[in-house]
Design brief:
Strand order of the largest sheet: 1-2
CATH topology: Rossmann fold
Helix content: 25-40%
Strand content: 5-15%
Number of helices: 3
Radius of gyration: 17 Å
Oligomer: single chain
Number of domains: 1
Structural class: alpha+beta
Largest sheet: 2 strands, parallel
């Protein structure tokens, strides 16, 4: 069975892996966790993120836009993390 990312007829196949992004859901879950000071609650969620901040929906959209552009035409079979360096990655063999 052919691999989709390696089948030249399929076109690029990539994954976008967003980390902690400020959305209505992130705000709601911060409030549901008991934070009355929203800024403090969101700041607490940035612990462990090397960029020391949340990402934005616009940053995720810009990354997807890039991957859909001709400039990314030779990128395929990749998982692109948009997480400020915060998500653990699986160990690479070897």
């Amino acid at each position: 069975m052919p691999s989709v990312p390696r089948d030249s007829r399929a076109g690029p196949v990539n994954a976008v892996c967003p980390g902690s992004i400020v959305t209505a859901r992130a705000i709601s879950s911060t409030r549901l966790a008991g934070w009355t000071d929203l800024e403090a609650g969101l700041a607490a969620r940035t612990r462990g993120i090397p960029a020391a901040r949340h990402g934005s929906v616009a940053e995720v959209a810009a990354t997807i836009s890039f991957l859909c552009s001709d400039a990314a035409g030779y990128i395929t079979g990749q998982s692109l993390y948009i997480d400020g360096g915060g998500l653990p990655r699986p160990a690479k063999p070897g």
